[in-house]
Design a protein that fits this description.
alpha+beta; 4-stranded mixed β-sheet
């Protein structure tokens, strides 16, 4: 794995040397999602090709829950390479036990940090039964908190949050109806 990491970093740094502006830059890559069963055996592999996206496209996609999107998650934190200066522009919001990467990255994009796509598989992300992201009741609370956080800092992004907010509202109505029918 160390060899893979060195190759990834070298590839991304080679892209840096080709840029006119080298400061204030984050590199992102594609990734492979590796699905693992209860016995820790690989049952499927899925390449996620992100491609080069504008800052607006990245923000819009970050605000859509993955299960509602028709594209891969664009900025998997394991795929990012950034200087310490960029990383220090923003701290992770500790209230967000999930989705911190989305809030962190949105704030960097709003701060005009340059995001550069480097076309390679830059990480292997394992997906298994015990992933917290598989637990909707856990994730739902953090999506609500993410939208509250983003909208309080960047009210111009409220329209981009609407897909997720609409889903959460419909989900709340479904849950309420279920309680009424069972009650």
């Amino acid at each position: 794995m160390i060899g893979f990491t060195k190759i990834k970093i070298k590839f991304q740094l080679d892209h840096l040397s080709a840029l006119d502006v080298q400061e204030n830059t984050v590199f992102y890559t594609d990734y492979e999602r590796v699905f693992i069963d209860k016995e820790q055996q690989i049952i499927n592999r899925e390449e996620n090709i992100v491609g080069s996206l504008s800052a607006e496209q990245l923000i819009e996609r970050l605000l859509i829950p993955d299960f509602l999107a028709d594209s891969p998650f664009p900025l998997l934190q394991q795929c990012l390479l950034m200087s310490k200066d960029v990383q220090e522009k923003k701290i992770f919001d500790e209230r967000l036990k999930a989705l911190q990467d989305r809030d962190f990255t949105i704030d960097l994009l709003i701060a005009n940090v340059n995001f550069v796509y480097t076309p390679m598989i830059g990480a292997y992300y394992t997906k298994h039964q015990s992933n917290r992201t598989n637990n909707w009741s856990y994730m739902k609370a953090y999506y609500i908190l993410l939208y509250e956080t983003v909208c309080s800092k960047h009210d111009d992004l409220i329209p981009l949050c609407q897909v997720g907010i609409d889903f959460l509202l419909k989900e709340a109505i479904r849950e309420k109806r279920k309680i009424i029918l069972l009650g």
